[in-house]
UniProtKB/TrEMBL annotation, chain B:
Job description of the protein: NDH-1 shuttles electrons from NADH, via FMN and iron-sulfur (Fe-S) centers, to quinones in the respiratory chain. The immediate electron acceptor for the enzyme in this species is believed to be ubiquinone. Couples the redox reaction to proton translocation (for every two electrons transferred, four hydrogen ions are translocated across the cytoplasmic membrane), and thus conserves the redox energy in a proton gradient.
E.C. designation(s): 7.1.1.-
Name of the protein: NADH-quinone oxidoreductase subunit I
A GO biological process held by the record: aerobic respiration
Domain 4Fe-4S ferredoxin-type: 65-94, 111-140
Protein family per UniProt: Belongs to the complex I 23 kDa subunit family.
Membrane topology of the entry: Peripheral membrane protein
Keyword rRNA-binding: no
GO molecular function: 4 iron, 4 sulfur cluster binding; iron ion binding; NADH dehydrogenase (quinone) (non-electrogenic) activity; quinone binding
Subunit structure: NDH-1 is composed of 14 different subunits. Subunits NuoA, H, J, K, L, M, N constitute the membrane sector of the complex.
PANTHER family per record: NADH DEHYDROGENASE [UBIQUINONE] IRON-SULFUR PROTEIN 8, MITOCHONDRIAL, NADH DEHYDROGENASE UBIQUINONE IRON-SULFUR PROTEIN 8, MITOCHONDRIAL
Length: 345, 167
């Protein structure tokens, strides 16, 4: 392990961390803009041209606000909660391959922080850890609404993680690997997994809506029943952390969806572009394509949020356990049978 | 029983068909509707920069009128204050001096005339009560402010600009 390696990884981590924070920041702005335009409004347009400085203004507001820690709360856990939520949201970006290896000054630099051979498992682990931030925060608030919301979040995540895992198994039957880098490399050009696994993708997408607590599965934040949900008692930047974590989660799950099913940085005509742009710029173009896909998925998340009403709790559980899990199992069986037939003949 | 108006509609609660239970076609349809709104014209008016066009009988801020010679029409009779249901108008009358003839139309005039814009309900009764056609609610929207005292508008804000200034 030489110094060059450490510097290279350090820069990569810093850049990815910065990008995910900026994207989360501007997701809040984009959310309000998308909501506005879908409802024939304009949205925030006062801070800077087109309201482009709105996230900064919001950030300043969050920092300047009075911070209240309820006297009956568990102080230590109350502070740990939002931190954990944000941390778990951020570390998911570590295994995502952002682009094909790039040549900088005669050195091949992989655009991925860690190519571990259990990348998919790692993502799953991190995503399931994310619910601890919500649970700890909700419990530590010592407020019945926060607690109810935390319970909802936990049970929702557990139920949908099963269907999510099962939908991934069908994909893994085809890819034969858990490394995200290899999975992306297999989807060269337009050979994307979504063409082979449309049902799996659908299930995976629905489950990621539930995992990120986004509408129509945003029951933990259901304000008509639970006031503010698990962050009812939170104020100032601790509340900001929770909101931020939600947007980073959205960014990460968009990236995972694009990686697993929509070819990551692959795009039709990439071989031609590689000869045209050379080994330095072609990967960067691929990164751009990848980010385009991510932004599209983030937009999709918002588009769904401003279209579909919230599910009722029993409907949510019905859909998860009686709808998605049997479908996912059927998907595994069909995939398995098809693979067996193809290998036989 | 036969309904009298013949407007009664009996709704049947049918079990959902397979397509309806799948949710997805309905969701796709709904998303089509929302995306179509993305390309529609926004209804928003960017208020301080752009102002909505008002109807001809819109009642906004009051103005105290002058006659054709630029003299104030108000004679401080107090009918507007009397007619005001919100009791927003107060005034103090004064007698016109001989050297003030060019300022006020009649012998009596309002030395101070105040309308509390926080009390005013913009009903237009003062307009109707005025026998001298001195007050009209033909101004713009009353602007927002920070302090209550700043909403009490005196003659400096209410009286129309003099004729020569208008030109």
């Amino acid at each position: 392990m030489d110094t060059g390696f450490i510097i290279e990884k350090f820069i990569l981590v810093a850049v990815i961390f910065g990008i995910s924070l900026v994207i989360a920041m501007y997701s809040t702005y984009a959310e309000r803009k998308v909501a506005a335009y879908l409802q024939d409004r304009l949205g925030p347009d006062r801070a800077g041209p087109f309201g482009i400085l709105q996230p900064l203004a919001d950030g300043v507001k969050m920092f300047m606000k009075e911070e209240i820690i309820p006297t009956t709360s568990n102080k230590w856990l109350f502070i740990v909660g939002p931190g954990l939520a944000l941390l778990c949201a951020c570390i998911g970006t570590a295994v995502i391959p952002w682009g094909s290896p790039m040549e900088i000054g005669g050195k091949i630099v992989p655009l991925q922080v860690a190519d571990i051979n259990v990348g998919v498992l790692y993502i799953f682990g991190v995503v399931s850890l994310g619910v601890y931030g919500v649970m700890i925060g909700g419990w530590a608030s010592n407020n019945k609404y926060s607690l109810l919301s935390a319970i909802r979040a936990a049970s929702q995540n557990i139920s949908y993680e099963i269907a999510m895992g099962l939908s991934i198994i069908a994909l893994l039957l085809m890819t034969n690997t858990l490394s995200l880098k290899t999975i992306v490399e297999q989807q060269h050009g337009l050979n994307w997994n979504v063409w082979y696994q449309p049902l799996g993708f659908l299930i995976f997408m629905i489950c990621s809506f539930a995992e990120t607590n986004r509408a129509p599965f945003d029951l933990p934040e259901c304000e008509t029943e639970l006031i503010g949900g698990y962050h009812t008692e939170y104020s100032s930047m601790k509340l900001g952390f929770y909101l931020f974590a939600e947007y980073i989660n959205m960014f990460v799950s968009s990236a995972v969806m694009a990686t697993l099913y929509f070819g990551g940085y692959n795009y039709p005509g990439m071989d031609y572009m590689a000869t045209l742009l050379g080994p330095t710029w072609a990967p960067l173009f691929g990164v751009g394509v990848f980010f385009f896909k991510i932004v599209f998925f983030i937009f999709f998340f918002m588009w769904v949020r401003w279209t579909i009403p919230r599910f009722r709790y029993d409907q949510l559980m019905n859909l998860g356990w009686k709808g998605l899990i049997p479908l996912a199992i059927a998907n595994i069986i069909i995939t398995g049978v098809v693979i067996a037939i193809i290998e036989k003949f | 029983m036969e309904s009298l108006s013949n407007k009664k509609k009996v709704l049947e609660q049918k079990p959902l068909s397979f397509m309806e239970r799948m949710y997805l076609p309905a969701i796709a349809k709904g998303m089509g509707i929302t995306i179509s709104h993305l390309f529609k014209k926004e209804a928003t008016v960017r208020y301080p920069e752009v102002e909505r066009e008002f109807s001809a009988n819109f009642r906004g801020m009051h103005s105290l009128k002058r006659d054709e010679n630029g003299k104030e029409r108000c004679t401080a009779c107090g009918l507007c204050a009397l007619s005001c249901p919100a009791e927003a108008i107060t005034m103090i009358a004064a007698e016109r001096k001989t050297d003030e003839k060019h300022l006020y139309r009649e012998e009596k005039y309002a030395a101070t005339y105040e309308i509390n814009m926080l009390r005013c309900i913009f009903c237009g009764l003062c307009e109707e009560a005025c026998p001298k056609e001195a007050i009209y609610l033909d101004g713009p929207i009353v602007p927002a402010d920070y302090l209550r005292k700043d909403f009490i508008y005196g003659k400096d804000k209410l009286v129309e600009a003099p004729l020569e200034m208008k030109k």
